[in-house]
């Protein structure tokens, strides 16, 4: 999916940085998909042989084994052996799939929220001049969250990118930052396709895409929101969505505010 990569021609530090973060993300997703594909291929291939061997033996049994104790014994023990092989294969595959999951390295650092959101939104303004981005940031500069800066940026990019990607005629995105009960709340609202209530419960699953036919030509692979959710959970945060089909969606992320270590 090299077509959806962002290429920045002029030298612009912020945009270059944004495009690097974005392209890294795409590369990781691409790698992940390749791994999954390879995995499914391997499983199918590895399981085909024991299944074919067992089929042969069962056919033999069916035709002659009922009357021939020698064939009966041999085919039974060969089939049981193949079953053992399949069992250990399945276990191996499971272990492999767990091990191959892209690992996230969580890193807690004191990150100022307001400038990061502001900068990310400004970058999107530059990349999508046909869109209106509103930012309601009624919080002070001193709001911090304990999160690796690049991870928060990655989450914001996923949500802003979706807001743009699944928009319809009304090309508007509203972003708001608020703090309530020491919890940071960032909401990203669009006025695009929206989705049904059923879909809101599935979109955070890996590879899930609403209406595959419609979303296919928009690029993407159904991993963005799953990654955003996994990242947020690692920082004791959460993500949720409210959506109305054909009206739009609000994605909301919550993260606990950074607490200075107290000495008492
Ligand atoms: P991708 O966008 O690559 O398909 P995501 O995990 O980011 O993967 O999103 C999963 C699915 O959720 C999308 O395919 C789309 O159907 C739906 N979706 C995500 N964001 C929005 C949005 N802002 N408006 C409508 N649908 C959305």
Query: What's the pLDDT, averaged over the residues?
Result: 85
Q: In one word, what is the shape?
A: elongated
Oligomer: single chain
Helix content: 40-55%
> Which structural class fits the helix and strand makeup?
alpha+beta
Please indicate the percent range of residues in DSSP E strands (runs of 2 or more).
Answer: 15-25%
Task: Please outline the major beta sheet.
Answer: 5 strands, mixed
Termini gap: 54 Å
Radius of gyration: 25 Å
Total helices: the number is 7
Order of helices and strands: HHEHEEHEEHHHEE
Ligand names:
adenosine-5'-diphosphate
Strand order of the largest sheet: 2-4-5-7-6
Tally of DSSP β-strands: 7
- Which ranges are low-confidence, i.e. pLDDT below 50, for 5 or more consecutive residues? none
Quick summary:
Keywords: ATP-binding, Kinase, Membrane, Nucleotide-binding, Phosphoprotein, Transferase, Transmembrane, Transmembrane helix, Two-component regulatory system. By secondary structure, the chain is an alpha+beta fold. It has seven helices and seven strands.
Structural features:
7 helices, 5-stranded mixed beta sheet, binds adenosine-5'-diphosphate, 52% helix, nucleotide-binding, 264 residues, EC 2.7.13.3, two-stranded antiparallel sheet, 17% strand
Give an overview in words.
The chain is elongated, with a radius of gyration of 25 Å. It has helices at 13-65, 69-99, 113-127, 149-165, 197-200, 212-216, 224-234, and strands at 110-112, 132-137, 144-146, 172-180, 183-190, 238-244, 248-256. It has 264 residues and is of the alpha+beta class. The strands form two sheets. A five-stranded mixed beta sheet has the order 2-4-5-7-6, covered by helices on one side.
């Amino acid at each position: 999916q090299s077509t959806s990569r962002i290429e920045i021609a002029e030298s612009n530090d912020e945009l270059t940085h944004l495009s690097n973060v974005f392209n890294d993300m795409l590369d990781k997703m691409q790698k992940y998909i390749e791994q999954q594909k390879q995995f499914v291929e391997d499983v199918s291939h590895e399981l085909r042989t024991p299944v074919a061997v067992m089929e042969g033996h069962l056919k033999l049994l069916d035709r002659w084994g009922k009357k021939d104790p020698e064939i009966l014994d041999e085919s039974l023990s060969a089939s049981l052996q193949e079953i053992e092989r399949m069992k250990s294969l399945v276990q191996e595959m499971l272990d492999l799939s767990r091990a191959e999951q892209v690992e996230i390295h969580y890193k807690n650092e004191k990150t100022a929220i307001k400038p990061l959101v502001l900068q990310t939104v400004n970058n999107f303004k530059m990349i999508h001049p046909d869109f209106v981005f509103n930012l309601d940031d009624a919080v002070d500069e001193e709001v911090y969250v304990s999160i690796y800066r690049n991870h928060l940026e990655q989450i914001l990019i996923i949500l802003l990118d979706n807001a743009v990607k699944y928009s319809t005629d009304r090309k508007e995105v509203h972003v708001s930052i608020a703090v309530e009960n020491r919890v940071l709340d960032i909401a990203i609202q669009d006025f695009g396709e929206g989705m049904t209530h059923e879909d809101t419960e599935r979109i955070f699953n890996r590879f899930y895409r609403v209406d595959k036919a419609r979303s296919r030509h928009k690029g993407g692979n159904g991993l963005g929101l799953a990654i955003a959710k996994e990242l947020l959970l690692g920082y004791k945060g959460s993500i949720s969505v409210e959506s109305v089909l054909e009206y739009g969606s609000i994605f909301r992320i919550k993260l606990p505010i950074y607490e200075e270590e107290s000495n008492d």
